[in-house]
Structures are given as structure tokens and as C-alpha cells.
Write a structure and sequence with these properties.
Order of helices and strands of chain B: HHHHHHHHHHHHHH
Largest sheet of chain B: none
Structural class of chain B: mainly alpha
Largest interface: A-B, 91 and 94 residues
Order of helices and strands of chain A: HEEHHHHHHHHHHHH
Strand order of the largest sheet of chain A: 1-2
Radius of gyration of chain B: 24 Å
Shape of chain B: globular
Radius of gyration of chain A: 24 Å
Distance between the termini of chain A: 42 Å
Oligomer: heterodimer
């Protein structure tokens, strides 16, 4: 039997959590449960009432070539954006951290894309990539290379979008490296200086290994972002040409709000949730390890 | 000697990349103030006009969009500050049954962000009859696990003695929360506010799905419609002007308060 004291001690804390919990349940947990159920049903324009079909939605996803195309796109998008933006971010942070003249300028220049709406960025880069009149085409005319339709060519469109995302993300990752660098003890650098170690050696033996936890963290964020960043597709490509630039979240949007195939949209959402949970599991595994190191 | 030269080379590479990074911004500003008839002319000139901004403001209901965005951003923030403060205090200072279970539940929101749940949340909004309302745009964000964790970290750094002294003075728990913890958390609240404001100012996909009338649309959705309605190159000047109008408030804020912005975003990652 729970005593009055138990309720008195706990109820205040529970009351404090209540407002947050109401919204968490309503917009995180209940929707996840709902999605699981809907993913086991046929619910599209052909079915007036949802019909239970077990795992058929999942099975048909395996045979859906556009789904695999989208997953492959997401894979290349991650491969294209993550290492480049992380390397750039690290280089930037190392230099913006030194007593270099104009480091405020360097930080500002790198970070500002992160305070602009993605949709606005998409407009700007659309004009950069426009054939003939776009900024890139004009620049290419100077070097007398042929003109390319960056966003209209299935082989080029992903590259064009990867460059844009690297431009946006590098500055965001830079700030985590700046934070990481502040924790590296200056004594280590002084010791290296006395030994006459060259900058590259110092970077390889001191800076880079000590920033490893930051790198892992940034990788997780970058990986999660590679699934979340889709706003630009609405303006720039609509996932085209021929699904060459579509990503998982955009595909979910299309299935749900253009084709009203609710069963399929739910199944895709579950796939996405599972992927994100795997990414988080990796993160927790790593955080556990990090705690042991400290 | 050679180290100094290589240092200089590396520095100039960094500066060049920084300048390269600024090109899109410089180009947008240049185009937005350029007369319409020169939009596609490849020649560089110093022609300057404000006509594009006037046209944009008159051509689409940007004042409505602006107002909606401001209402949404401030509305979300106000509710968040309330919900986040309560939960953060509970997690930081109280011992209660189920603490770790609740903590894990909160963590789930960080792992599975609302962006992913667009479709199920849309149907919930429909059940609540909140489609095409500003409340509908705001409501999924009223609880913020990120804010709870950020504030919790901060509350933990406040000495417990302060709270005990207040208890001796006869202050209730509720009063202690709002009269001691809340005012002391100022810097953490500013960090949280900057991250929340920039997220919601820039949010696009969710408001796109929720709204279908002009009166409820925020800037991002308005901008995307404006951009799509003007496909010919001749309207570049106006689209760039609109783009600048939508991005300017945060961009200007960032240029002035660069350090605060960067440190806020830094904390957003530390959680």
C-alpha cells in the first residue's frame, strides 16, 4: 500500500512534468503507435476503410524500385556531405581558434548559412545553378567550359545539392570543434613547441586524437541531418529529375500528401524511425564508452 | 622560416574559403537591389533600386506572413519556457518515482524529432480540428526535450544552499522555482531562445502541410509560393528581394550578436 507520504513527495514532481508530457504523448508517442498500426493496413484511395494486411506494406516496399532509389540517394547524400563538411569544419575550427587576424570574420562567414531558412537557401542556389544566367554558368563561361544544367541532369543533381549542403553544414559543425578545442590543454601545445614539433605532426598526434569524441558526435548529427534536410527539394528539384534527388523524408511527404497512400507513408515513417533509433543507439553506445574514459 | 611561409599559405587558403562562402550572400544582396531589367545582364554595374522590395511587399501578402511568423515564433517560445522550466526543475532537483523512465521518454523526442512524424501528426491535428491554424503549427513544439536538458544542466549548477535559505524564509516550492531558478537561468534561457527562434523562424515543412490559407501562412511557406509563382528569369530580382526579406531579421541579428548565436548553437549540441 502506497502511503500518503509517497504521493505527497511525488505528486509535485509529476505535476511539473505533466505539461511537457501531455505534448510529448500527443505528438511523439501516440503518433508513433498510430503509425505502427497504420503501417500494417492498406489505407489508400482504393480502400475506403483501412484493411489489415499484416506485413504486406513492408513486403511491397522491398519490391518498390523508387524506395530503393531513394535509399540509395540518401546513402550517397550522406557519403557526399558528411566527410567533406566535417573535414572543412575541423580545418576552419583549428584556424579560427588560433590567434589569427580576422577570425571573427572567418567564423561569421562560415556560420551565417545556418541562420538562413533552408527554403531561402534553396532560392539562392537555384539561381546559382540555373543554366545560362546562373552565377555558376556565368563563371563557367569565363573559363570557356560548356554550360551544364546542374539540377536538370540526373547524374549531376545530387552533386549540386551535396555542394550546397556542405556549404550550409560546415559552419555548424565548426562550432562544435571550436568547443572541443577549448578543452584541449594548452600545456600539450607548449610541450610540443619545445620539442620543435611541426604543425602537421602536432595536429596528427595531439589535436585530432583529442577531438575524436567531437568528431563522433558531429558524425551522428550529420547522419541525422542527412535524413531531415529536405526543404530545398521543394524549391529546387521536387525530387527529380527521375527521382535522382529524392530523399526518404521527401518520399514520405509525396506518398502521404500527393498520393494519399497512408499505409505506405506509415511504413516509410517506421523505416525512418528505425534508422534514427539505430543512429541514436550508436550514439549512446559511444557516450557510454566516453564516460568510462573520463 | 619555412613554417612561417606554410602558415601564411594556409591562412590565405582559409581566408579565400571564407570569401567563397560569402559569395551567395553578396550575390543575393546585389541582385535584390538591382533594377529588374538588368537582372539577367552579365555586366557588373552599380545600379541601385528599392523597387524590388516595394513590388514584393505589394505583390504578395508578406506583411501577413511576417506577422504570422512572429506570432508563431513568440507563441512557441512562451509556452516552451513555461513547460521547459517546470520539467527541468523536476529533473534537476527533485527525487521522485519514475524519474529515469520519464527521462528516457523525454530523450525519445530528441531521437525522433517532429520533422519525421509529419504524417501521423497531420492526422492528429485533423482529429483536433487544428488544421490551417497557427495553433496547429505551434502545438507539436510546445514540449521541448532539448530545452529541458539544457535548463536541467544549468539548474544543477545553482547551489542548493540558495534554495534551502529560501525555504527557511518561508517560500513555497512554486515560488522558489519562479523567483530563484527562473531569474538565475537567464543565460541558459537566452541560448534556448536563440535556438528555438531560429528553428521556428526557418521551419518550413510542417507549416506547409498544416496551412492552406494566406491568413495562417508563415514567411517560409509564403516565400516558397512566391518563388514558385515566378518562374521566369525576369523575376529573379523580386525573388531575391523576397528571399532577403525573409532571411534578414535573423541574419542581421546574427551579424550583431555573432558570439551569442554561436555559443547558443554550441550548447544546443551539448544537450
Amino acid at each position: 500500500m502506497l502511503s500518503a507520504k509517497f504521493w505527497r513527495d511525488n505528486s509535485f514532481a509529476w505535476l511539473l512534468l505533466l505539461p511537457s508530457l501531455v505534448f510529448l504523448i500527443l505528438f511523439t508517442f501516440y503518433p508513433i503507435g498510430k503509425t505502427v498500426i497504420l503501417s500494417l493496413q492498406q489505407s489508400d484511395l482504393a480502400a475506403r476503410e483501412p484493411i489489415f494486411i499484416g506485413l504486406d506494406n513492408y513486403k511491397s516496399l522491398i519490391g518498390d524500385s523508387i524506395f530503393w532509389k531513394v535509399m540509395t540517394n540518401n546513402f550517397w547524400f550522406a557519403i557526399g556531405t558528411i566527410p567533406t563538411s566535417i573535414a572543412l569544419a575541423l580545418a576552419m575550427a583549428v584556424f579560427a581558434n588560433k590567434a589569427l587576424r580576422g577570425k571573427g570574420f572567418v567564423r561569421t562567414a562560415f556560420f551565417y548559412p545556418n541562420v538562413i531558412p533552408m527554403i531561402a537557401i534553396a532560392n539562392v542556389w537555384l539561381f546559382i545553378y540555373t543554366p545560362q544566367y546562373g552565377l555558376l554558368s556565368r563563371a563557367m563561361k569565363y573559363v570557356e567550359k560548356g554550360d551544364l544544367n546542374w539540377l536538370g541532369n540526373p547524374d549531376l543533381v545530387m552533386w549540386a545539392l551535396i555542394v550546397m549542403i556542405v556549404w550550409r553544414e560546415a559552419g555548424y559543425f565548426m562550432i562544435f570543434y571550436l568547443a572541443g578545442l577549448q578543452n584541449v590543454s594548452p600545456d600539450l601545445y607548449e610541450a610540443a613547441d619545445i620539442d620543435g614539433a611541426r604543425p602537421w605532426l602536432v595536429f596528427r598526434k595531439i589535436t585530432f586524437p583529442l577531438l575524436m569524441p567531437t568528431t563522433l558526435f558531429v558524425m551522428i548529427v550529420a547522419l541525422t541531418n542527412s535524413f531531415k534536410l529536405v526543404d530545398h527539394l521543394f524549391i529546387m528539384t521536387k525530387g527529380g529529375p527521375d527521382n535522382a534527388s529524392s530523399l526518404l523524408l521527401y518520399y514520405i511527404y509525396e506518398q502521404a500528401f500527393a498520393f494519399w497512400d497512408l499505409g505506405k507513408a506509415s511504413t516509410l515513417t517506421i523505416v525512418m524511425i528505425v534508422l534514427l533509433l539505430i543512429i541514436s543507439a550508436v550514439q549512446f553506445f559511444w557516450m557510454d564508452k566516453k564516460v568510462h574514459y573520463e | 622560416m619555412s613554417a612561417r611561409i606554410s602558415n601564411r599559405i594556409v591562412n590565405s587558403v582559409i581566408y579565400s574559403i571564407a570569401v567563397l562562402w560569402l559569395i551567395p550572400l553578396i550575390w543575393v544582396i546585389y541582385m535584390a537591389f538591382r533594377p529588374k531589367e538588368l537582372a539577367l545582364s552579365p555586366k557588373f554595374t552599380f545600379d541601385f533600386t528599392l523597387a524590388n522590395f516595394v513590388n514584393v511587399w505589394q505583390g504578395a501578402p508578406f506583411s501577413v506572413y511576417y506577422l504570422n511568423t512572429i506570432i508563431i515564433v513568440l507563441g512557441v517560445l512562451a509556452v516552451q519556457i513555461f513547460t521547459v522550466t517546470l520539467a527541468a526543475y523536476a529533473f534537476a532537483r527533485l527525487q521522485f518515482w519514475g524519474k529515469s523512465i520519464f527521462f528516457t521518454l523525454f530523450l525519445m523526442q530528441i531521437m525522433i524529432p517532429n520533422d519525421v512524424l509529419i504524417f501521423p501528426n497531420y492526422s492528429i491535428l485533423k482529429e483536433l480540428s487544428l488544421l490551417d491554424t497557427r495553433t496547429g503549427i505551434m502545438i507539436p513544439y510546445f514540449a521541448s526535450a532539448f530545452g529541458v536538458f539544457l535548463l536541467r544542466q544549468f539548474f544543477k549548477t545553482i547551489p542548493v544552499e540558495l534554495e534551502e535559505a529560501a525555504k527557511v524564509e518561508g517560500l513555497s516550492k512554486w515560488a522558489i522555482l519562479w523567483k530563484i531558478y527562473f531569474p538565475l537561468g537567464k543565460s541558459a534561457y537566452i541560448s534556448f531562445a536563440l535556438v528555438s527562434i531560429s528553428y521556428h523562424w526557418n521551419n518550413f515543412l510542417w507549416p506547409l502541410i498544416v496551412t492552406n490559407s494566406v491568413e495562417k501562412r508563415p514567411l517560409t511557406v509564403g516565400l516558397s509560393l512566391f518563388a514558385q509563382s515566378s518562374e521566369t528569369g525576369a523575376q529573379w530580382s523580386e525573388v531575391t528581394a523576397a528571399t532577403l526579406l525573409v532571411s534578414a531579421p535573423l541574419l542581421i541579428g546574427f551579424f550583431f550578436f555573432q558570439k551569442q548565436f554561436i555559443s547558443s548553437f554550441m550548447q544546443s549540441g551539448i544537450k
